[in-house]
């Protein structure tokens, strides 16, 4: 299930995101009972999504959680569309907004990336909010601001950094999605990663006995990069995704560092010309 931001009344959604005065929906008749705010409603939506996924979020379910009817929530949030925007942006407020550059941009960027990775695993439903349509909220922009402060310390140009930011975010979200899929697959099917692979490996050898001859490079990789024995404390695929995340991050950081060094080497030549 992919959710696209900005599907509701975008002006009202932006007003709620940025807390513009008077952003709440006008109400006729008796006022709402005290003790409920937009943030209370949004926090309830986040709690439901964390526990049961974004598909479980509805105005009715959120109303139950806060002790109101679903209809009563429309005083605070116009519809589920705006609610999802608010949930996503409010969840992002958990991320730090300042990173220490004392040890250089690479150390700071590594911390930022691991913080974002941990955030995605805490709130797996946020990966269902498509990056194709940004929410445009304050915390989404604060997240971008924090990583850009780190990256601009590299001295690289804006055009390069724009692509670097996208690559880093895609790397984190992609690896985190694999971890989440692994957890959901085991829960949905009742079969662990290890049992799934064990059952299919034996059958695969019978069905495709000439696999090694047909795909020798695939077999070479499997043999030379043999994985550790199954970890009783963690599923196989989740462990693989975590190690892939760490290895991929190291490659990305090395690549950025190479760009920085190349830029430094090219700079004197540019001045001479």
UniProtKB/TrEMBL annotation:
Keyword Protein transport: no
Alphabetical keyword list: DNA-binding, Transcription, Transcription regulation
UniProt DNA-binding residue ranges: 58-77
Sequence ranges assigned to domain HTH tetR-type in this UniProt record: 35-95
Keyword check for Isomerase: no
Top-rank taxon: Bacteria
GO molecular function: DNA-binding transcription factor activity; transcription cis-regulatory region binding
Record-level GO BP terms: negative regulation of DNA-templated transcription
Gene3D superfamilies: Homeodomain-like (1.10.10.60), Tetracycline Repressor, domain 2 (1.10.357.10)
Record-given protein name: TetR family transcriptional regulator
């Amino acid at each position: 299930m992919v959710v696209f931001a900005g599907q509701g009344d975008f002006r009202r959604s932006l007003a709620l995101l940025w807390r513009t005065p008077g952003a709440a929906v006008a109400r006729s008749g008796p006022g709402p009972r005290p003790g409920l705010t937009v943030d209370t409603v949004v926090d309830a939506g986040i709690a439901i999504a964390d526990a049961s996924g974004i598909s479980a979020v509805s105005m009715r379910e959120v109303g139950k959680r806060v002790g109101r009817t679903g209809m009563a929530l429309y005083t605070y949030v116009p519809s589920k569309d705006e609610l999802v925007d608010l949930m996503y942006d409010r969840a992002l407020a958990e991320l730090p907004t300042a990173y220490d550059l004392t040890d250089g941009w690479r150390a700071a960027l590594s911390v930022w990336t691991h913080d974002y990775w941990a955030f995605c695993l805490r709130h797996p439903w946020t990966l269902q909010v498509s990056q194709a349509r940004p929410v445009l909220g304050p915390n989404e922009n604060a997240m971008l601001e924090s990583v850009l402060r780190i990256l601009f310390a590299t001295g690289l140009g804006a055009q390069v950094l724009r692509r670097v930011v996208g690559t880093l975010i895609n790397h984190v979200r992609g690896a985190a999605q694999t971890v989440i899929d692994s957890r959901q697959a085991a829960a949905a099917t009742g079969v662990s990663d290890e049992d799934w692979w064990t059952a299919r490996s034996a059958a695969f050898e019978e069905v495709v006995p000439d696999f090694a001859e047909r795909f020798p490079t695939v077999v070479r990789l499997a043999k030379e990069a043999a994985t550790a024995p199954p970890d009783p404390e963690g599923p196989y695929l989740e462990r693989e995704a975590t190690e892939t995340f760490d290895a991929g991050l190291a490659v990305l950081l090395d690549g950025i560092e190479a760009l920085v060094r190349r830029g430094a080497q090219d700079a004197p030549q540019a001045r001479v010309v």
